[in-house]
Design goal:
heterodimer; A: alpha/beta; Aspartate Aminotransferase, domain 2; Aspartate Aminotransferase, domain 1; 2 domains; seven-stranded mixed sheet; four-stranded antiparallel sheet; 15 helices; B: Aspartate Aminotransferase, domain 2; 14 helices; 38% helix
Chain lengths: 473, 436
């Protein structure tokens, strides 16, 4: 398909702006000498271009999207509707405080509800995404220890099953990473944890349910052990969809957490963002929260604030969407969503585990992990091949090759917004591709065959990077 | 209660029975009972769609909506062509995840590749990433790109937006990098001080063009000084201004960053916006976040993939160049559609109108006694004195006009875009004449 630049034709365009009603005056400053090659293209052609691109994209609205760890739920349309209100969209972030009561109420109420769900005491919406929330949380831990004079607490313990963002966020906050191995059940190995805890421990980062979809049943023991040596406990809330309304991180010993609004609270992911990664904490960490915060008495900056992680109040419109979602499902809907997410995952796992190897064969939470190690050994068909075969059935594949601790992993997260028929159809497809793989292993390497492009040469893309269109003149 | 769960209670029951559970709660049997939250969450009961719409509209109504906005200071009121939202509301764009599966994500990947190309064209730079969170975090990430073991000091001009400064300082608190402020003189970076303060441990200088006070800095001079000291120059720029003004590339800047909000994104009480980052061929491997590259399939068909992933957290974990995972892809799409809709001529037209109108307003305000604070070239923002900024802004507010941002000592930072008509500006000037 042509790029938009290849559809550009000199002299075309759109009459968007009226002629200036004042005299043209230019500043006494150097002007650009080189013309920019922005497209010259009519609105009709732009519309068709993006309609063609949309056809070559796949969203939750296109079909089943069991991308593990990403919680690809239905994105309620009411959220889009209320967030497009001009009285949100056209509000300047630096308007006088008495003119932004509505925006402040959105932030305050959503903070209240999310604190209730997580068992935390305060929350900031400044972080724009999950990883950004992690970074913010790690800075809170750092600021706390510095304030207490604990300058030797430089280590963060991260289990090897953690999201890659956990160690990366800790390093950005200036910590050293202590990786610990999981036990044979995919849980934190308590012996291993004990060995690595010390007076140098600043904290522990834990994803729970963990990345193999299991709830760590030693969680109370883990947080107690970390607290006993003076460390703080960070809860990676990326997987909260499994337990919201069922378990509250704040009740099981966690001091700070982040949420992925674009996962758990159903806001759309937009092909990569914008998300929202609010960071919540217990009362004793509140003085370190970033940004300008809304209180009963107006705006305030916390006394020991770490500063700012974005310019204003984070991805505000995303928060509006989360509020709409929360108001819709309400107090009874929150745990009901979690329970059905877990039901759907267990249903799919049950219906696949007679032919597929499940990495950990026990009741899972909102997602489960298959390992295709044996299939690969016996037939040469990999998790990648299987994923590409799914594309030919019009389904989005699960997350591949994650978590790293499971070989040839496929991580499946159906979410609660899928019906039994969708799951049944997907189960049939999974079973069918398994049969196909065993019958004709060589053919699997050719998949997909029905997509606009075949498997793309990623090695070439990285070796000789072409990262922009080059214009001829 | 509204619900987004399609399965009925009966279906749930039969599914449970089929897999050997008697109720939903039993699915959580492995969780120790002392961990389970007992009781009901203290949040309101669920509501129907119509009730939710009514309730949130009521909240929105508590905001005051201005139709005449003369305030910028980092968030700009511009016209958004109709097609921008039409395109970005397409559900395939809205409801997809990061394009990990390239074969069914060519639409997203190509749109990002086109966005990267447009940002390169606008800034003149050679490579762009797929976006970061906002202009502030983009500046902070750019500083990280410049740090080396022996060059770790980060310099920021005092004329940079205070929120950008604060964000860089927060990131530096994390990394332990030293932050040094270069003072301002007459509303612009003090070039003499800059020369004195840079040394062989300097990693980079961050400047803003036009700067926070609207003044256009002498970037040629700054660029020479910074590079003579062996440091890198990071320029935070307003993308609209690049439709007219000398580009970062033409100034020899190493990394150009900024907020893409003026290019088709609403004011939205501060977000979602978009952080853009473009750089030279020398430095592109240090860029954080997603980057889309061109490649081919076996049949020779052109396609696009996420590339250079060896920089990223999911591969490199603690050794990654940044922790960024989600970015602002849908905002990048809006920016690309905006730039396609206005085109090269349109972006120039917007820039010319912004600055022409700012000069008209400044002249008018000057004539009624609001003196221009800095006698320097400016783009679409400028600072004036006033006898009582509070009184003036209140008087404007009564007419439904959001005046400039009050600064200390009764000074006001004004901003004018193509949205301001001559009539609006004359009205503003008349109020100023009356009140000042």
């Amino acid at each position: 398909m042509k790029l938009i630049f290849e559809k550009s034709y000199e002299g075309r365009g759109n009459q968007i702006f009226p002629e200036s009603d004042v005299e043209v005056v230019l500043p006494e400053s150097p002007l650009r000498a080189k013309k920019s090659h922005l497209p010259e293209i009519s609105e009709n052609e732009i519309g068709r271009h993006y309609t063609a691109l949309a056809k070559r994209a796949y969203g939750v609205s296109s079909g089943f999207y069991p991308l593990g760890s990403c919680t690809m739920k239905h994105n309620p349309k009411v959220s889009e509707k209320v967030a497009s209100n001009p009285k949100f969209v056209n509000i300047h972030p630096l308007q006088p405080i008495e003119t932004t009561e509505g925006c402040r109420e959105v932030l305050k109420r959503t903070e209240e509800y999310l604190c209730e769900i997580t068992g935390m005491d305060a929350m900031t919406f400044q972080p724009a995404a999950g990883a950004h929330g992690e970074f913010t949380g790690m800075l809170l831990i750092k600021a706390y220890h510095e304030k207490k004079g604990h300058h030797n607490r430089t280590e963060i313990i991260v289990p090897d099953s953690a999201h890659g963002t956990n160690p990366a966020s800790s390093v950005m906050a200036g910590f050293e990473i202590v990786n610990i191995k999981s036990d044979e059940n995919g849980m934190v190995d308590l012996k291993e944890l004990k060995e690595h805890l010390s007076e140098k421990t600043a904290g522990l980062m834990l994803t729970n349910p963990n990345t193999v979809g299991l709830f760590d049943n030693n969680i109370l023991k883990i947080t107690e052990m970390v607290h006993d040596v003076g460390g703080l406990c960070y809860y990676d809330g990326a997987n909260l969809n499994a337990v919201m309304g069922v378990v509250r991180p704040g009740d099981v010993g966690f001091d700070v957490t982040h949420l992925n609004i674009h996962k758990t609270f159903s806001t759309p992911h937009g092909g990569g963002g914008p998300g929202s990664g609010p960071c919540g904490c217990k009362e004793f960490l509140k003085p370190f929260l970033p940004g300008i915060r809304e209180t009963d008495h107006g705006y305030t900056t916390e006394i020991d604030t770490i500063g700012n992680v974005t310019g204003y109040y984070g991805n505000f419109l995303v928060v509006v969407k989360a509020l709409a979602y929360l108001l819709t499902i309400g107090s009874e809907g929150v745990p009901m969503a979690a329970k059905n997410a877990v039901l759907n995952a267990n249903y799919m796992m049950y219906k696949l585990k007679d032919i597929y190897d499940v990495a950990y064969d026990r009741t899972c939470m909102h997602e489960f992990v298959l390992t295709l190690e044996k299939l690969k050994e016996e037939t040469g068909v990999s998790a990648l091949d299987m994923s590409k075969m799914l594309l030919d059935y019009g389904m989005h594949p699960p997350t591949m090759y994650f978590p790293n601790i499971v070989h040839e992993a496929l991580m499946i997260e159906p979410t609660e917004t899928e019906s039994k028929e969708v799951l049944d159809d997907a189960i049939l497809i999974f079973r069918k591709i398994y049969e196909d793989a065993v019958a004709n292993p060589d053919k699997t390497h050719e998949a997909p065959n029905s997509t606009p492009v075949g498997r793309l040469d990623e090695v070439q893309a990285a070796r000789k990077p072409v990262l922009r269109y080059e214009f001829k003149s | 209660m509204g619900t987004f769960i399609p399965n009925t209670r009966e279906e749930q029951k039969s599914m449970l029975a089929e897999i050997g559970y008697s109720n939903l709660e039993e699915l959580f049997k492995d969780i120790p009972s002392e961990c389970i939250f007992k009781g009901e969450l203290n949040i309101p009961k669920g509501k129907s769609e119509l009730e939710v719409v009514r309730e949130i509209e009521k909240i929105a109504d508590k905001n005051k909506l201005y139709k005449k906005i003369f305030r910028g200071a980092g968030a700009y009121y511009h016209y958004i062509p109709a097609i921008v939202d039409t395109v970005s509301n397409k559900e395939e764009f809205l409801t997809s995840y990061t394009p990990y599966q390239a074969e069914i994500s060519q639409g997203i990947l190509q749109s990002i590749f086109e966005y990267q190309t447009m940002m390169c064209e606008l800034t003149g730079m050679e490579t762009s990433n797929a976006s970061v969170y906002d202009g502030c975090s983009a500046a902070a990430e750019a500083c990280t790109m410049c740090r080396e073991r022996k060059r770790a000091k980060i310099y920021i001009s005092e004329t940079v937006d205070p929120r950008t400064v604060k964000t860089i300082c927060t990131y530096n608190f994390g990394s332990g990098a030293e932050t040094i402020m270069i003072p301002k003189v007459n509303g612009e970076t003090d070039i003499n001080k800059l020369k004195e303060m840079l040394d062989d441990e300097s990693a980079c200088l961050v400047i803003q063009q036009p700067n926070y006070f609207g003044v256009l800095e002498d970037v040629d001079k700054i660029s020479t000084i910074v590079h003579e000291a062996g440091a890198k120059l990071i320029m935070s720029c307003n993308p609209i201004s690049l439709g007219l003004l000398k580009t970062p590339e033409e100034y020899g800047v190493d990394i150009a960053v900024g907020d893409g909000q003026p290019l088709g994104l609403g004011l939205a009480y501060g977000g979602p916006y978009l952080g853009f980052m473009t750089t030279t061929k020398k430095m592109f491997r240090k860029l954080p976040g997603r980057i889309v590259g061109e490649t081919f399939d076996k049949k020779g068909e052109r396609g696009f993939v996420l590339t250079l992933q060896a920089r990223e957290q999911h591969i490199r974990r603690e050794k990654a160049s940044s922790n960024i995972c989600s970015n602002q892809a849908l905002c990048a799409l809006k920016v690309a559609v905006y730039l396609a809709a206005v085109g090269q001529k349109g972006i120039n037209e917007v820039a010319v109108q912004c600055t022409s109108k700012a000069h008209y307003l400044q002249k008018g305000l000057g004539e009624v006694g609001l003196k221009l604070e800095y006698d320097k070239p400016f783009f679409h923002e400028f600072v004036t004195t006033s006898s009582d900024s509070n009184k003036l802004l209140k008087a404007l507010d009564k007419k439904g006009i959001l005046g400039g941002l009050p600064l200390e000592d009764n000074r006001i930072l004004w901003c004018t875009t193509e949205m301001a008509t001559k009539e609006d500006m004359d009205e503003l000037i008349a109020v100023a004449k009356e009140v000042n």
